[in-house]
Structures are given as C-alpha cells and as structure tokens.
Amino acid sequence: MSPQEFFELSIYISFGLSIVAFLFTIIRLILGTTLADRILSLDMLVTLGIGFIAIFTLHTGFYAYLDMAIALGLVGFLATVAFARLLMHRGETNDTPAGDKLEDIEDDDTQQAKTNGGAS
Amino acid sequence: MNKIFLINVLLAFTWCAVQGSFTFINLIFGFLISSAALWLIREQFGTSKYFNRTWLIIGLIFLFLKELFLSVVRVAWLVLKPGQSYKPSFISYPLTVDSPHEITLLANLITLTPGTLSVDVSDDNKTLYIHCIDVEDVEALRKDIRDGFERKILEALR
Amino acid sequence: MLDIFLGCLLIAAAIFNLIAAIGLLRLPDVYTRMHAASKAGTFGSGLMLVTIAIHAGEINIASRALAGVAFFLLTAPISAHLLARAAYVAGIEPWSGTVRDDLKGHYKDKQGHLSSDDD
Asked: What is the pLDDT of residues C54-107, one digit of tens each?
C-alpha cells in the first residue's frame, strides 16, 4: 500500500469512528436524565462537528471549509454559555416532560373555550 | 516589558522595509534578528528580564501541552477501564495568586490538566473549587498545583 | 512518509473523539462526563486541525488552523467551568460515589454568590 492510499484509508476510518461518536453522543442527548447532561451533549456535538469538518476538509482538499469549522466553534461556545445561563436562572434539576405541560395548557384552553362557549 | 516587545516588532518592520518584502516569513525572520540584536545589548540596556520572561512563558506553554496530553491519556484510561471504581470529589484550593487575569489563567490550566476541572472561584478571590475525577490524596494534589502551575505563573507574569 | 504520519495522527484524533463520546455514555454523573467531553473532545478535534495545518503546508492555511486550535483550547475550559457551576447552583446532585464535597453549603443563594473557606 502506498502512503497516499494509506492516508485515504485513514480518512475513511476516521469518518467511521466519528460517526460512531456522533451516535453515542446522540444517545446521551436522548437519555439525558438532567438538563445539564443534554447541554453537555450539545456542546460535544459541536466539538465532534468541528472534527468532522476537519476530516472533510482533508478529504476534499478544499480549505475554505476550515473557516466554517472556526465559525462553528465560535457559535457553539456562545450557545453553551447561553444554555448555562438558562440552566442557572431556571433553577430546576428535573425535566418535567414537555408533553405534560402542553396537555395542561391545552386542557385549560379547551376548558376556558368550553366555559366561554357555555356562557355565550 | 511591553515597551521592549514593541521595539522588537518595530525593528522587525524596519527589517522588512529595508528588505523591501513584507511577507509573513520575512516578518518572522526580522523579528528573530531584532530579538538577537536586543539580546546582544542586554547588559547595557537591561533587556535581560524580557528574555528571561519570554523563556518562562515558552516553558509554561510546553508544560501545558505536556500536561494536556497526560490528562487525555488518563481520562481515556478511566473511561475504558471496566467497572466504576473511581472516586470523584469537590475540593477547595486556597489561592496565592490574586489578580483576576492570573486566576483566569490558573483556572484554565487546571481544567485542561489530569483529572481536575475548576468549578468556581469564591467572591473574595481566595478559594478555587475544583472537581477531581479520581483522587486519592487531596493534600498531594494541592501541593502539585502549588509547586507546578501556580509557581510557574507567578514566575512568568510577575 | 509524511502521509503515513498524518494518517496515524488523524486516526488517533478520531479515537480520542470516540473515547470522549464513550465517556459521555459510561461515566456516572454530569461532572465526571464533563471531564471526558472537555479534555478528550477538545484534544481530538484540535489534533485534526493540527493535521490540516501540517497537511496544507502553506503558511496562510496553517496559521488559520493553528489559530482555530488556540481558540478551542481557550474556550473549552470556560464553557466547562460555566456549565459545572450552573449545574451545581441549579442543584444537580453529584454521583452517590462522590467521596468529598467541599462546595457543600458554600453557595449563599441561587445567583451563584460563593463564600470562601474562611467564613
């Protein structure tokens, strides 16, 4: 195997490993248990995305993608900072399932509509 | 310190102007030549402190890269070894550095070194709280930080 | 020769990223997971950018890639610190196996005001 071929092969191997890493991170994003775990998984997804773009840059040889990786890093950092502030000022540890809340609101609305409808 | 650095940059630009080519490589070459010139006159103009400090900062950067690599290897081992036998803990660390930028630097260095992650600094800038992933001897860890990073930061920045 | 070295570097970086992701799955609580994400993850992606810098061999691309690495090394500890602090202030319990907790009781309110050891 020539060195050139080995380099091509290593690019494909690292694509594969990155995809598995993406998968594991998404499993943690879904399992969660706390909001902080989910924020951490999103941060990790951004980091993995930067790595993926870096491999893609090597694969295509088109170095303009590098700017995209740096910009993604900037935006991802700001997103994590914003999420951390949200977590702190929200002051909740356990996620109440979003479905319950929505149903409550809907119930209230429908009940109100019904009572309104009944009144008028 | 900063003045000498500015003179160094100015001399590098002068080198480029005399050479007539403002490429990046030539600018770096001019910077090296002008720092060599400043090194030659260190006895007369007192620039030796500038060079000492530059060496200390370069040493700090290399120490940091070495510790970063060690920390990644250690985290990898902790993740891959079977069973959950690690002992995480939050510990407090009394700071001797006191200015905000020194604390920032120390906290960032601590986060990227083996098994430690800085969580918060107290309001009066006296205590740094660290989360350790696997710690046996708390006093040894404190001593490690005090003799390693904190001493180097004090040497390089004061 | 250089190609073989760069290939090994790239695979090592991808393995570090994978280890970070496995750590995210396997470690018991958010504070320990943060160690894996902020160290192994940053190191892996940074190593990939270094690979680009060596592979390109041009000074303008290499300087951009190395600036990216410096940027990640600066921002990763800050986001980890913010997240750990926010998680602790919001009251997320550390893992039951945590041996020692010096932070306990030092937060005065939900705004994150922190007293030091002395008082």
From this structure: 888 788 888 888 888 888 888 888 888 888 888 888 777 777 767 677 667 666
Residues 6 or more apart in contact with residue B108 via CB below 8 angstroms: B118, C74, C77, C78
Q: What residue ranges do the domains of chain B occupy? A: 2-46, 49-157
Backbone angles phi, psi at B128, to 5 degrees: -110, 130
Q: CA nearest C23 in B: which residue? A: B79
Decide if C41 and A70 are in contact by the 8 Å CB cutoff.
no
Burial B62-101 (b: 16+ CB within 10 A, else e): eebeebbeebbbbbbebbeeeeeebebbbbbbebebeeee
Chains that contact C by 3+ CB pairs under 8 Å?
A, B
CA distances from B9 to A49, A111, B5, B51 (A): 38, 74, 6, 15
Residue A77 belongs to domain with CATH number: 1.10.287
Q: Which helix (H) or strand (E) holds C101?
A: strand C100-101
Nearest CA in chain C to A90: C90
B110 touches C73 (CB < 8 A): no
What is the three-class DSSP state of B118?
strand
Alpha-carbon distance of A41 to B113, in angstroms, equals 21
Q: Cβ of C78 under 8 Å from any chain B Cβ?
A: yes
B116 closest CA partner among B75, B154, B63: B75
Listed in sequence order, the DSSP H helices in chain C are 2-26, 30-35, 42-56, 59-89
Can you give the C-alpha Rg of chain B in angstroms? 21
In whole angstroms, what is the distance from residue A14 CA to residue A20 CA? Answer: 10
Report chain A residues whose CB lies below 8 A from the CB of C92. 34, 36, 93
Give the ranges where chain A is alpha helix by DSSP (H).
3-31, 35-60, 65-90, 98-119
Of B45, B153, B56, B52, nearest in space to B102 by CA:
B153
**Number of domains into which chain A is organized:** 1
Query: What pLDDT digit, counting tens, does each position of B58-82 carry?
Result: 888 888 888 888 888 888 888 887 7
Calpha distance C68→A63 (Å, rounded) = 13
Cα-to-chain-centroid distance, residue B52: 15
